[in-house]
Amino acid sequence: MPVAPTYPGVYIEEVPSGVRTITGVSTSVTAFIGFTTRGPVNRGERVLSYGDFERKFGGLDAASPVSYSVKQFFQNGGSEAVVVRVAHDSFKASVNLLTAASAGIHVLTVEAASEGTWGNQLRVDVDYATTNPADLFNLSVVELVDNAGTMVVGRSESFLNLSMNAFDPAYAVSRINGASELIRVTRPNIASFTTGSSTSGTLAEADFDALDATHRQLAVSVNNGPAVPVTLFAANPSQFFDSANDDLNERIDKLATAVAGQVNAALGAGTITAARVGSTLHV
Q: Is residue 259 part of a domain?
């Protein structure tokens, strides 16, 4: 017979059928939608305790009725909630990090992990007390909180021996974004960076005369990535250089063509250019 609904919930009435019965659903998960001081915006976030809500959404706030509702939900035996934070016309606090040079170049953007004025209380510090100060750096971030009218350090995070090399396991972007609860970092478009370059020493005829079956390779590394072997010829220098007719400039030109062709074939078209500049090879 039909079920008489007596309270809000999901009711199931089974009727004879050749299909499987309807599976019941949980009615103990409650959704909360409203303003919170922090947290992901406009998407549901699973919360399993009030402590979980504090970590993700900032806890109680006088301007946030939903924060009190969540607290009371868990105080009265609730075990699982879905919280949706709404924040109209909100922005993430951010700052650009520049190189130490006088004409500082923008190398990283640091922004709060979520929208809201809470991000204005974040403080970021960079230092070079690392195992390799020329290539590595440390980044720390603290969140200041109001304690009876005095700003004190709440949460803090430190990331040590970071690299700006995307091939390095300690690459700053992936290390920080994969672990931080306070910030996210991004790099500006690589087009905004000055092109890197490398120039050989002065080349002479003798350098090319010394090439033979066991001296026919060099290696090129781009951005500290894996070395790409450049093989000039299979076994005999005459397969590459016309020793009788090529002058020094022609030999360097052929060397430049080989370096650019093989590196770009390995790492992607347009990765490098190579050309003769005087009696040097400029990459």
A: yes
Gap between the Cα atoms of 167 and 135, Å rounded: 13
Predicted structure pTM score: 0.60
**Mean pLDDT score of the chain, rounded to an integer?**
87
Amino acid code (one letter) for 127: D
- With CA atoms as reference, report the closest residue to 109 among 9, 16, 185, 208: 185
Digit-coded pLDDT (tens) for 87-125: 888 899 999 998 876 567 788 999 999 999 999 999 999
Q: What is the pLDDT of residues 46-71, one digit of tens each?
A: 999 999 999 999 989 998 999 999 99
Query: Whole domain around residue 53: which residue ranges?
Result: 30-85
pLDDT of amino acid 230? 87
Q: Let me know: does 200 contact 259? Beta carbons within 8 Å.
A: no
Greatest C-alpha distance within the chain: 104
CB 87 within 8 A of CB 116: yes
Bin 72: left if φ > 0, else alpha if -120 < ψ < 50, else beta: alpha
Average pLDDT over residues 182-205: 82
- Burial tier of 263 (Cβ tally within 10 Å: 0-12, 13-18, 19+): buried
- Total structural domains within the chain: 3
CB-based contacts of 146: which residues, under 8 Å, 6+ apart?
none
Q: Which of 53, 85, 117 corresponds to the end of one domain?
A: 85
236-241 mean pLDDT = 80
Say if residues 263 and 178 touch (Cβ distance below 8 Å). Answer: no
H or E element in which residue 206 lies: helix 205-209
Task: List C-alpha distances in Å: 261 to 78, 158, 216.
Answer: 65, 42, 16
CB 228 within 8 A of CB 221: yes
Q: Residue 144 belongs to a domain with what CATH number?
A: 2.60.40
> Which residue, 44, 24, 20, is CA-closest to 33?
44
